[in-house]
């Protein structure tokens, strides 16, 4: 399945500024509702994404020590914490109530899913990316995550696992699903895309079997380098939104992929990743 059909155009990020709250986890949903309620009455206040992503009070019931060292961000204990923060497939999500889908005919949108692969490459906790084939009709040579349209009666997790095997040969039995983030619209609101966060263990990139009709290359970026401030730049749109652009890697990571990456880093390394998405209401 070609990813071009679902990859949102970068310009669509301007349509709903408060779509960034898609990264709010199940754990922080009450905070999200409170912020959105206040926003309804205060549309012109300045707001940072930290309000939507992390509670101001520390959760003393669990230890966050594993997230404070890069070598531990993909440890079992930190992955367990992430599972609690992310959505399970059975968790109810009323997509009609998501701020970035208000006023949209959700029933006409086709479901799709992408897989965000966390892994160990050269013993470094990393994120795996694909480079789209130049043979594709759109978004040629762009950095992306594996993904595609969900088949009839197919669940988001199953679709994401199927697509990653089709595109780069990763078998589902080698992938540990940590959870999902809230769905967001694809290009022209034709697709409703669910990001699935996963841990893929030790990856030897040279041994991956690529579908060159869709993917020209697979590369990894270490989580430490992705969190490094000197490797994070920002792009501003219409003085309303500031989004991260990740540089200093084999390929520049921008657009939807960068936004999804930002959300994942906030989940797996909240004490190490300090980039902000800024919205002006």
Task: Report on this structure.
The chain is an alpha+beta fold. Helices cover 21% and strands 25% of the residues. It has helices at 29-41, 50-53, 76-85, 156-168, 223-227, 255-268; strands at 46-48, 110-121, 124-132, 143-144, 147-149, 176-180, 184-185, 191-202, 215-222, 232-237, 241-246, 278-280. Strands 2, 3, 4, 5, 6, 7, 8 and 9 form an eight-stranded mixed beta sheet that branches.
Keywords, separated by commas or semicolons:
281 residues; alpha+beta; eight-stranded mixed sheet; 6 helices; disordered N terminus
Care to give the gist of this entry?
This protein has 281 residues and is an alpha+beta fold. It has helices at 29-41, 50-53, 76-85, 156-168, 223-227, 255-268; strands spanning 46-48, 110-121, 124-132, 143-144, 147-149, 176-180, 184-185, 191-202, 215-222, 232-237, 241-246, 278-280. The protein is 21% helix and 25% strand.
Q: What is the makeup of the main sheet?
A: 8 strands, mixed
Gross morphology? globular
Number of helices: 6
Q: Provide the β-strand percentage band.
A: 25-35%
Alpha carbon gap, first and last residue? 37 Å
Rg, Å, rounded? 18 Å
Mean pLDDT: 77
Q: Which class of secondary structure composition applies to the elements? A: alpha+beta
Order of helices and strands: HEHHEEEEHEEEEHEEHE
As a percent range, the share of helical residues equals 10-25%
Show unreliable segments: 2-67
How many strands appear in the DSSP assignment? 12
């Amino acid at each position: 399945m070609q990813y071009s059909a679902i990859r949102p155009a970068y310009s669509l990020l301007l349509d709903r500024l408060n779509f960034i709250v898609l990264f709010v986890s199940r754990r922080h949903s009450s905070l999200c509702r409170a912020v959105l309620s206040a926003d309804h009455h205060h549309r012109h206040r300045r707001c940072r994404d930290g309000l939507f992503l992390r509670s101001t009070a520390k959760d003393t019931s669990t230890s966050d020590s594993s997230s404070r060292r890069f070598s531990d961000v993909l440890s079992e204990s930190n992955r367990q914490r992430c599972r609690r923060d992310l959505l399970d497939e059975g968790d109810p999500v009323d997509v009609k109530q998501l701020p970035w889908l208000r006023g949209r005919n959700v029933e006409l949108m086709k479901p799709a899913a992408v897989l965000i692969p966390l892994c160990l490459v050269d013993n470094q906790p990393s994120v795996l990316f694909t480079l789209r084939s130049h043979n594709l009709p759109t978004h040629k040579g762009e950095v992306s995550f594996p993904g595609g349209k969900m088949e009839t009666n197919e669940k988001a997790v199953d679709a994401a696992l199927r697509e990653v095997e089709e595109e780069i040969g990763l078998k589902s039995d080698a992938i540990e699903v940590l959870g999902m983030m809230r769905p967001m619209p694809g290009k022209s609101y034709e697709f409703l895309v669910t990001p699935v966060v996963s841990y893929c263990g030790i990856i030897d990139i040279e041994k991956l079997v690529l579908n060159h009709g869709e993917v020209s290359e697979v590369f990894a970026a270490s989580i430490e380098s992705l969190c490094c401030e000197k490797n994070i730049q920002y792009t501003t749109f219409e003085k309303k939104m500031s989004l991260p652009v990740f540089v200093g890697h084999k390929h520049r990571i921008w657009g939807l992929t960068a936004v999804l990456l930002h959300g994942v880093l906030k989940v797996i390394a909240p004490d190490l990743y300090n980039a902000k998405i800024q919205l002006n209401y």
